[in-house]
Specification:
Strand order of the largest sheet: 5-4-3-6-7
Strand content: 15-25%
Radius of gyration: 20 Å
Number of strands: 7
Distance between the termini: 30 Å
Largest sheet: 5 strands, mixed
Helix content: 40-55%
Structural class: alpha/beta
Order of helices and strands: HHHEEEEEHHHEHEHHHH
Number of helices: 11
Length: about 250
């Protein structure tokens, strides 16, 4: 079975269990996939680390939380005017901090020194006139930096975002020494065999709604959904801090 198809079917089974909110026997999961004939040879190989298999099938997420107790997690995303730190600029920052059952969100547009290109405006849906009234990057980071303290940073394609974020913070006299977990790396371990591991491709695997534009907080939510799934795939009943999975 193709890896993409296999992982998508597994996600459908997880979604069915969440919708039911209770354990289900293998035949019921087979019905969820529209299977006819023997169910176990098809369904059992689909059950990745998210599933607890006993007399019936359950989800490990019902037994321990994400993130791990005592670990603060910040999922972060930037939108920029291009791909090159030093040449291009940040135009939006979004993050979600999860800690001890609490959730805090932050989002802000950022005023660049030059307006974004028409391509970037179309890609992000952020217009030049919106950015004219936005605060500068230093002001945005002053507000966002306290939310980063003591947290594990979870970022899709982390080297890109950190290439913009670290120099900007260092220029303000701040250091960014947080542990970093790249969801691309986790996804490759949790879902081997896929051809692509970009956020759009992984969103298709998890059957998340398509995005209309690249926006920071929207991409944070997608990255968070991805991190949640791969966390349970990789812990498989043995809860650990997310930072341990990124090593």
């Amino acid at each position: 079975m193709d890896a993409l198809f296999r992982h998508r079917l597994a996600t459908r089974l997880a979604r069915r269990l969440r919708a039911e909110g209770r354990p289900l026997p293998l035949p019921a999961l087979g019905e969820a996939l529209g299977l006819r004939g023997p169910v176990e040879p098809v369904v059992r190989p689909l059950l990745d680390g998210r599933f607890r298999l006993g007399e019936e099938v359950e989800l490990w997420e019902w037994y321990y939380p994400f993130p791990h107790p005592g670990e603060a997690v910040v999922v972060l995303d930037l939108e920029t005017t291009g791909l090159s730190p030093g040449l291009n600029e940040v135009i939006e920052l979004g993050l979600v901090r999860l800690e001890e059952g609490e959730r805090r969100s932050f989002q802000s547009l950022v005023r660049p020194s030059r307006p974004p290109s028409p391509f970037i405006e179309k890609l992000t849906g952020i217009s030049a006139w919106e950015l004219e009234e936005a605060p500068p990057l230093e002001e945005v980071l002053e507000k966002a930096y306290p939310l980063l303290r003591g947290a594990t940073l979870v970022i899709q394609n982390a080297s890109f975002d950190l290439g913009f974020l670290r120099p900007a913070l260092e220029g303000m006299g701040y250091s960014l020494e947080n542990p970093v977990v790249d969801t691309i790396r986790l996804a490759k371990r949790a879902m081997p065999g896929l051809r692509r591991y970009g956020l759009d491709a992984l969103s298709q695997v998890l059957e998340l709604p398509p995005r209309e534009a690249h926006r920071a907080l929207g991409d944070v939510e997608r990255t968070l959904a991805l991190a949640y799934e791969v966390y349970y795939m990789l812990t498989a009943g043995i809860p650990r801090p997310l930072v341990d999975l990124g090593r």
